[in-house]
Specification:
The chain has 612 residues and is of the alpha/beta class. The chain has five domains: 202 residues, P-loop containing nucleotide triphosphate hydrolases (Rossmann fold, 3-Layer(aba) Sandwich), CATH 3.40.50.300; 49 residues; 180 residues, P-loop containing nucleotide triphosphate hydrolases (Rossmann fold), CATH 3.40.50.300; 71 residues, no CATH class; 69 residues, Helix Hairpins (Orthogonal Bundle). It is 38% helix and 21% strand. The chain is built from 19 helices and 20 strands. The strands form five sheets. It has a six-stranded mixed β-sheet, with helices on both faces. The longest helix has 32 residues.
């Protein structure tokens, strides 16, 4: 039985002074829909959501819904101007008899209704916006990045709440685990089009790759047809010219069709390069603790981080994750205990508050005036990993165009600001990366690329994140701040920590916020060694993780070898494209060597795990 339509967009077109954001868009939201809205940063996801909410007027087209249908919208950065407390904001759209709903939601969200918005954290402001939307009880909920700035416990509460609701919702989020658990359909904003797939986000990447493969095949067939018709035009048109004009016009139409095809945007050309190798021991903390007044942030805690470790830090908002990072890297002195940093450390910091970005400065100036990467005496060059590059060329690596380069940082979306921060830290060589909430606002493709870069990075990574999927993919060890000053280190990512008994306190009367992560002189980084119980396999934590990931590495290398072998099986490749033949031959030999090494490594680790 067909579900009734709650919201219908028909033939919507919208342009903001340049290329159309949408053209001829048709979209329907049905009763009970649970939809993931996905797409590249800057593709128009938030704009589309504002059109659906009736906040942005399209140039053409119509928006219809049954009489009495209500649409609730939670934007990324709500405006708290004029509200004395978070509670005032949350109840502003409700009648006096409905305010109790906010109070009930505040208990589940651990929201302090009397908090001053001007002094509230990003997580508290986000909880107030969620309380307001949920209390309105609209027929359709539009949620733009609802999990940003929320801790894992709050994300879990929201996930359970949305899983139980019968209200239709459309959600934009970077959190894979959140989208996988909740969505049953996917809207994909891509180059001005919106495609719908009647499967949840878990099927998105397979669906996207299939669409791209079909596009590539159609483009290839059209190229071959144009080439064939063009050859005919040169060789066969001289005779019976009049009769062949229709075919000439058809060739012109084919070329016009080919020119109109919109190529998909390339992936950001991000590179992480390790500086001089640090010592094997990067950070060793013994008995460190910290309190603010009577509030204990951290009880005495030991931690050893070794070169190459990827350490995740998890805990409720305000529990002290950034404070712990500041102590581990020498930015903040502990009350008790001692932190010893290894030698030769070169640190790069990704700050969750984007404190390294001046909102009024242009993207161009944000790079050329950065003392750590500026080229003396040049207004258009930056030093990228030891070599000067033109700033525009470097910005293009991170998918910024020339118009954006001269625009102020405040005009960027959240995901674009995150990419600009990555551009700044990736221009430097480092051997210790401090990543404080790096996943906020980034699109799926950029997250995948960042994950791959971290996997290949030879240095050490300290990562604060509430993104459960990203932690599982990246972290080799996870430090959980479990409440009341207690911290515990576990092997593996977030799911592994849960399996080992980690628990997360819901205590958001949190500690006084610590100063944002300092951006001072270079400090050390290192892999983690903890007193958590070792697996009974005889393997270290790093070896256990490596043993788990090696089958995927081997499978990837085998797939690459298969593609290279297919390419080199072309008998005409050498004469037709000798340079391509040479590169493919070199790549084949390189991957064969890597495959042999990976298989040997797997065999040695497997034997060690079995006690052989």
């Amino acid at each position: 039985m067909a579900r009734p339509a709650l919201l219908q967009l028909s033939d919507i077109s919208l342009t903001f002074g340049g290329d159309p954001i949408f053209d001829g868009l048709d979209l329907v939201v049905h009763q009970g829909d649970r939809v993931a809205l996905v797409g590249r940063n800057g593709s128009g996801k938030s704009t589309l959501m504002k059109v659906m909410a009736g906040l942005t007027e399209p140039d053409t087209g119509s928006i219809t819904s049954p009489q009495g249908t209500s649409v609730g919208y939670m934007e990324q950065e709500p405006d708290f101007t004029g509200f004395a407390t978070l509670g005032d904001f949350a109840t502003a759209t409700l009648g006096p008899s409905e305010a109790w709903r906010v109070e009930a939601l505040a208990d589940g969200l651990k929201l302090r209704l009397d908090a001053d918005p001007a002094k509230a954290s990003g997580g508290e402001r986000r909880r107030a916006a969620l309380a307001r939307l949920l209390a309105e009880e609209p027929d359709i909920m539009l949620l733009d990045e609802p999990t940003n700035h929320l801790d894992i416990a709050a994300i879990g509460w929201l996930e359970a709440r949305l899983a139980d609701t019968r209200t239709a919702f459309v959600v934009i989020s970077h959190d894979r685990a959140f989208l996988n658990a909740l969505t049953r359909a996917t809207l994909w904003v891509d180059r001005g089009q919106v495609r719908r797939n009647e499967q949840g986000f878990a099927s998105f990447e397979a669906w996207r790759d299939k669409v791209w493969d079909e596009e590539d095949m159609a483009r290839h067939k059209l190229d071959r047809k144009i080439k064939s018709e063009a050859r005919w035009a040169v060789e066969g048109i001289s005779a019976r010219r009049k009769r062949n004009q229709g075919r000439v016009r058809a060739l012109a139409d084919l070329r016009a069709e080919r020119a109109a095809m919109i190529r998909r945007q390339s992936t950001a050309a991000m590179v992480l390069e390790e500086g001089p190798q640090s010592g094997r021991k990067v950070i060793e903390a013994k008995g460190i603790s910290k309190s603010f007044g009577d509030h204990t942030i951290l009880a005495p805690f030991d931690l050893r981080i070794l070169r190459g470790d990827r350490v995740g830090f998890v805990g409720p908002n305000g529990a002290g994750k950034t404070t712990l990072l500041n102590m581990l890297t020498g930015q903040l002195a502990p009350d008790t205990g001692q932190v010893t940093l290894g030698k030769g450390l070169e640190m790069a910091v990704f700050d969750q508050n984007r404190a390294g970005l001046n909102p009024e400065a242009s993207l161009w100036d944000s790079l050329t005036l950065d003392r750590e990467i500026a080229v003396n005496g040049s207004s258009d060059q930056v030093m990228v990993r030891g070599s000067p590059r033109h700033v525009m060329g470097y910005l293009k690596d991170f998918l910024f165009d020339e118009a954006q380069a001269r625009a102020p940082v405040r005009s960027l979306s959240g995901g674009e600001r995150a990419r600009l921060m990555l551009a700044k830290i990736m221009a430097r060589e480092s051997n210790l990366l401090i990543l404080d909430e790096p996943t906020n606002d980034l699109d799926v493709e950029t997250l995948d690329l960042l994950q791959d870069l971290l996997g290949d990075y030879a240095g050490t990574v300290l990562l604060v994140s509430h993104d459960r999927d990203f932690l599982d993919r990246v972290a080799t060890s996870t430090v959980v701040l479990e409440g009341q000053g207690h911290a515990q280190a576990y092997a593996g990512g977030w799911s592994d920590a849960l399996a080992q008994g980690a628990r997360l306190a819901r205590d958001d009367a949190a500690a006084p916020s610590s100063p944002p992560f300092g951006g001072g002189a270079s400090k050390p980084d290192a892999p983690l060694k903890t007193d958590a119980p070792k697996p009974a396999t005889g393997l270290s934590f790093t070896e256990s993780h490596r043993l788990k990931e090696l089958p995927a590495v081997i499978a990837r290398l085998e797939a690459e070898l298969g593609k290279l072998s297919d390419l080199l099986s072309d008998p005409d490749l050498y004469t037709r494209e000798p340079v391509k033949f040479a590169k493919a031959t070199e790549a084949l030999a390189e991957r064969q060597a890597k495959l042999a090494a990976a298989e040997e490594e797997w065999l040695l680790l497997e034997e060690k795990a079995q006690g052989m």
